[in-house]
Amino acid sequence: MSRFLQDFEKFIRDNNGRVTSIAEMTGDNLPERVEIAESNACQNIYSVSKVYCVTAVGILCDRGLLSVDETVTDILGDECPDGYDPYWESTTVDMLMRHMTGFPGGFDTDVFDASQYDPDYLKEIMLKKWTCPPDTERHYSDAGYYIISRIVNKKAGKPLFAFCWENIFLPLGFREAAWSCCPQGHAIGATALYIRTDDMIKIGGVYLNKGIYQGKRIVSEAWVNKVLERRYEFSPNGIRDSYNKGGMNGQNLLVIPSENRVVGWQGYDIHPGGPDLTKFAAEYRS
């Protein structure tokens, strides 16, 4: 076990951090995982799932099958329900990944009773009347990433989950994964991807290493740069040069380029005032 993981585990235990497992990888090394408390091997990484959607979009863009400047209605065509809000016609993939839409509410299937939704989630989302024009205000919402799931399906000719297995999960050496789906079988996209902590951080290694994992090109360096510039889910946190993507109930994926390190943790933390794990990990010097 690395010195960092030893110290991070001690910090978590000493401060009653509500964490089940932590993982670290440096450079091209394979991830190392430490179990803090007993848990299922794969857990819901909540909104960290969005990073995998962003990467799937990047792969399609690299292949010339998609542009982030394309609009939702141009891509989905006759899949769009009759009577959709006309603002969707000027909403691009880029805007969806920046949450620059006027969709009302979060469409959070982890929080709300999804059995109350229309079984056609595309209809449920697109018929809602917007609160503002696209690209004018930021409204964080899971709805945009369900749309992205449908866009990947349309452009790749296969569902998001199958596309990710072929182009991300298998190349990264995932052992297992599951993704919650809508009643029509489309991955939610925004959340509810169930994977291991040591597998979760591998996507951070892709971005740390300019699109390459273990010598395999997953996505282009140009896409990595665009993700960081446009803040497609990964955002700087103000601690050194680190950036991260968090998920509900205490999930986190943290990249620290100056330390050549990626750190991740899973747990269940719904109480404010716990230890600042991001600060500890981002400020740690080997």
Provide an overview of this structure.
The chain is α+β, with helices and mostly antiparallel strands and 286 residues long. 33% of the residues lie in helices and 15% in strands. The chain is built from 11 helices and 11 strands. It has helices spanning 3-14, 49-62, 72-76, 93-97, 121-126, 143-156, 160-169, 197-200, 202-208, 221-230, 277-283, and strands spanning 19-26, 32-35, 43-44, 178-179, 193-195, 212-213, 216-217, 235-236, 243-247, 251-256, 261-267. Strands 2-1-11-10-9-8 form a 6-stranded antiparallel sheet, sandwiched between helices. Strands 3-5-4 form a 3-stranded antiparallel sheet. Helix 2 packs parallel to helix 6 (143-156). The two termini are 13 Å apart. The mean pLDDT is 96.
Strand order of the largest sheet: 2-1-11-10-9-8
- Number of strand segments: 11
The largest β sheet comes out as: 6 strands, antiparallel
Mean pLDDT: 96
Helix content: 25-40%
End-to-end distance: 13 Å
Defining traits:
3-stranded antiparallel sheet; single chain; 6-stranded antiparallel sheet; 286 residues
Q: Quick gist of this model?
A:
Helix content is 33%, strand content 15%.
List the helices and strands and how they pair.
Layout: H1 3-14, E1 19-26, E2 32-35, E3 43-44, H2 49-62, H3 72-76, H4 93-97, H5 121-126, H6 143-156, H7 160-169, E4 178-179, E5 193-195, H8 197-200, H9 202-208, E6 212-213, E7 216-217, H10 221-230, E8 235-236, E9 243-247, E10 251-256, E11 261-267, H11 277-283
Antiparallel strand pairs: 1-2, 1-11, 3-5, 4-5, 6-7, 8-9, 9-10, 10-11
Helix pairs in contact: 2-6, 2-7
